[in-house]
Write a structure and sequence with these properties.
By secondary structure, the protein is an alpha+beta fold. The chain contains four helices and eight strands; from the N terminus they run αβββββααβαββ. It comes from Drosophila willistoni.
């Protein structure tokens, strides 16, 4: 009789862990997006889609001697916002900064594969295209941002450091959304 209870317990436990062991994937759902640009010097056209990600075409009509990037990622919805990431750095130092943060390196690598953006100082004239920028649903950054009752804000932009030391905006962006958790499908 004991072996029946043991077998029943083992079978139910095995089935239960089988259900719980499904791998989770995380997806972004934007609730609000906005951007600005400093036309005619710096023209940005961005598209945001929950299905296909972010796309942009950026036209830089004159060289930017000292481009500066800013990025702020907040998690909101509790008593106080939680800062996930907050940095301001020269564009030419951004790639090494992302490489030093393991959560951001896969997103940065993906970003570079899906466009022709430059991390150089000065930032040369030209047209830069990014199509269908998506963060891999298995990226640990999304699992960190996932909280069922919270959402996130990403605020940042590209700025120019002037000879006087002042910072002038070239393009700013603001995105708000939620991270949705689902079981990974065959297409992930």
């Amino acid at each position: 009789m004991r072996w029946i209870w043991f077998a029943l317990f083992f079978f139910v436990g095995w089935k239960w862990t089988g259900i719980e062991s499904k791998e989770s994937c995380y997806y972004i759902s934007f609730t609000y997006t906005n951007w600005t640009d400093a036309q005619p010097r710096f023209v940005v056209n961005m598209t945001f889609s929950n299905q296909s990600g972010i796309g942009s075409i950026t036209t830089i009509n004159e060289e930017i001697p000292m481009p500066v990037s800013r990025l702020l990622v907040l998690q909101i919805g509790g008593n106080q916002p939680r800062t996930i990431y907050n940095a301001s750095t020269k564009l030419c130092e951004l790639q090494s900064l992302f490489n030093s943060v393991p959560l951001f390196k896969p997103a940065k690598d993906n970003f570079l594969k899906q466009g022709n953006y430059s991390f150089s100082c000065p930032l040369p004239r030209g047209t830069y295209v990014m199509s269908n920028m998506r963060i891999n649903p298995k990226n640990p950054l999304l699992s960190l941002l996932y909280q069922p009752k919270r959402s996130f804000i990403v605020r940042g932009g590209l700025f120019e450091e002037l000879p006087s030391g002042r910072i002038s905006p070239l393009s700013t962006y603001f995105m708000a959304g939620k991270v949705i958790k689902r079981s990974c499908g065959a297409s992930d």
